[in-house]
Amino acid sequence: MTALLRTEAVSKAFGGVHALSEASIEVTEGSITGLIGPNGSGKTTLFNVITGYERADSGQVYLGGQVITNAKPERVFALGIGRTFQLTRIFPSMTVLENMLIAARHHERSRNPLARMGAPARRHAMELLDFTGLAGHAGALAQSLSYGQRKLLELAYVLVADPAIVLLDEPAGGVNPTLINQIAARVKDLNATGKTFLIVEHNMDFVMGLCGQVTVLDHGTVIASGPPEAIRRDALVLDAYLGVAEDGHGDQ
Amino acid sequence: MTAIWRGSGKIGTEHRWRLAGAGALLAVAVAFPLVFTNPAVSNYGVLTLVFVAAAVSWNIFSGYTGYISLGHAIFFGTGAYFTGVATKDWHVTGSDVFGLLPLAGVAAAIIAVPLGIVALRVRRHTFVVITIAFFFIFQLMAYNLPSLTQGTSGLLTPTINFDPTTFNNPFYYVALAVAVCMIVLSWLIRRSRFGLQLRAIKDDEDRARGLGVRPMRVKLSAFVISAVPMALLGGLWWYYIGIVDPSSGFDPLFDVAVALMAFLGGLGTVSGPVLGALILEPAQLYFTQQVTSGYVYLILYGALFLVVILMLPRGIIPTGAELITGWRERRARSANPPPPGQPASSAAGRLSGRESGATRELA
User: Is residue A98 domain-resident?
Assistant: First the structure.
């Protein structure tokens, strides 16, 4: 199995705070990989560095064999990495269908920038809205959606461009249990068709039920990586979460 | 699937009504100077159409992207001076001067690219301030390059030997052509992929980047598209008025007026800026004529800006559309079983919806 996405000793500091210290992770092609860790351990910062929203101070990011370190967000997306945000970000004053069409360019054959989005793009967008259960809201303004529906919309419009890997930042955060199950089911469906996922999540049932691989960050460093069962029993991980040996590995 | 948008079939009739409305408006606009042959009246028509076209063009950039430019008078003034200098240097006369207008547009595009590249690096308030700063640089240049601009004495037009009874008509129809072209372009852009990207930038530029939108490219394109017609209008206006000086060519009130027209009618809509200009420009002309002190309308402008921002932050068109939809819903409901008792709750629901929209627009 090859690594589709890999970071190599990525470091990032904000002033004196080391958000990431030589963090190296690997996401196998076709896997659902979980990225967990206590609050402030650097998970979202790592997402931001991978997707070009923050610059790495040092280290490299690879997609397939290609170095994509510090590429701009629009370039990272074009290369095949889609992401969602922890605090869901949709386009509130546009309709749900319009939200879906922003990223829909792979289906657009016309070179004319003033051409209306063609029927294939619209059909594909509607299929994905159907898939996420939002088809009934296609004509509504996105600001009218509930928080959970916004999470689904954000997942759906990222999928429009058919990225090779999708990074989900807390997909289950602040969402009711029914919708959590729905999101998990959609991720499973997509993974069955070959889509790779990297998921940051605090909901352990969600992570352990979904992910084949789990990587644990603490203080910006990877402290464990492996299948969920092993992670559950890992002493370092338990320390990090329960704070028993906080001082033991707090530096670097 | 059409049922998703609204009651199926209804969209067809609504669309037809809109087309009919636009056609009727165009017919009235074409007939206007033929019916009202009094030059004092058609003067209103010319200047109003100049502002219709300007407000629609400004809205293509500022309305769709949310980047409020208060520097578009740069392009208006550049167009006026370009046409003026070219007319003088190349000894152009009569209606041939209209042929210079596209060149003025090209000049504006050439200026808009570097200005856009610098100004569009920053957002919101900082962007507004930078556009104002650029504006004053251009006004100062007009004052201080007398060899080119004749300084404060202004650039005069050559004698125009059009028939005095129909003198206004060529200006009127050129302004109308520019206005119609820009309305059509605005409509095409709004429903295109380009338009979606502009509106995505308005809602959340950083998020849009994460969906593959290249913001600088998209914003700069819209900036240039909205700058070009300003120069055409500036050149036309110079030829019509007969003189341009630094304070009238690079007029800060031009930007305030154009922005206010778009805000009043509905920022980011196709028809809003048209409506705003149709209301404000004749009103301004009327007040300037009626009240000898020409500055009374400035106070009215300021007051109106306050009223619009506070009471109608989304403008007449979006708020009006909402009221009509609400009224239709109420009527549909009262026509069908579940009778009275509901108005209070439905009104409250609409109000809260409007409030959330209002806060967004201001944010």
Answer: no
Expressed as residue numbers, the domain containing A200 is 3-89+162-242
User: Chain A: residue nearest B214 by CA?
Assistant: A74
Q: State pTM to two decimals.
A: 0.86
Is B333 in the A-facing interface, judged by CB distances under 8 Å? Answer: no
- What value of ipTM does the predicted structure carry? 0.87
Inspect the interface and report whether the beta carbons of B1 and A108 lie closer than 8 Å: no
Q: Which pair of structure tokens corresponds to residue B330?
A: 């109420």
Residue A6 tokens, joined: 């890999």
Count the domains in chain A.
1
Nearest C-alpha neighbor of B216 from the set B114, B120, B109: B120
DSSP at B257 = H
Residue A69 sits in a domain whose CATH number is: 3.40.50.300
How far apart CA B15 and CA B52 sit, in angstroms, is: 23
Q: Where are the alpha helices (DSSP H) in chain A?
A: 43-50, 73-79, 96-101, 119-131, 147-159, 177-192, 204-210, 228-233, 235-242
Q: Does A16 touch chain B (CB under 8 A)?
A: no
**For the segment B273-288, what is each residue's pLDDT rounded down to a tens digit?**
999 999 999 988 888 8
* A29 inside domain: yes
**Percent above pLDDT 70 for chain B:** 88
